[in-house]
Amino acid sequence: MTVIDYFYSAHSAYAWLGARRLHEICAAHGARLNHKPIELSPVVEAAGGLPFAARTQGHVDYFFGREIERWSELRGVEIIRHRPTHHDAPLSLASGAIIAAGDRADALSYAVLQAHWRDDADISDPETLAPLIAGCGLDPAAILSAARSEDIQSIYRANTAEAIALPVFGSPTYLVAGDPFYGQDRLELVERALVTPFAPSCWRNPPVA
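Given the sequence above, the corresponding structure tokens read:
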């Protein structure tokens, strides 16, 4: 079974927009997701991206407005039409819960992204997460306790460090046999890679000054 390393933020609009299609692709081709929730801002900045607060209004309106609307329509995914109310809330608990969910991470990740982007829920709130966890057939108290633990939080930090080292440019990023595909708009390429791997890259660029 092919394993796809799945780097994403638990509040990523584009992870949500691609989530259903990603699961469909995995089911069709017998692939499994290795969920790697990350803290997104340091990953983006380490890869040379601007901090979110430093981006222009035009950039934000296009990539975090119009593009979201279009992909929502194309993918048939329900989404609110504004920046989520709790978008700046901490993600360590939700991310930890996804990690702690083990083989139910597919279901819990989907539920968390849906709650944030369809329902405008506060995914930093244990009272929001508890019914989502229960809906995946897991014990909310046990998962939330594990999510807060140093063991799980160290995995969250390690995921972020790994994303910086690769480097990952943003959320979501999918690795198929070590080959990275950035963005849910690359899912068709991910599917092709599962069926017929792309030839190894032989491209060389001069060093960036």
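The beta strands are 3-8, 32-37, 173-176, 179-182. Try to locate this feature in the token string yourself.
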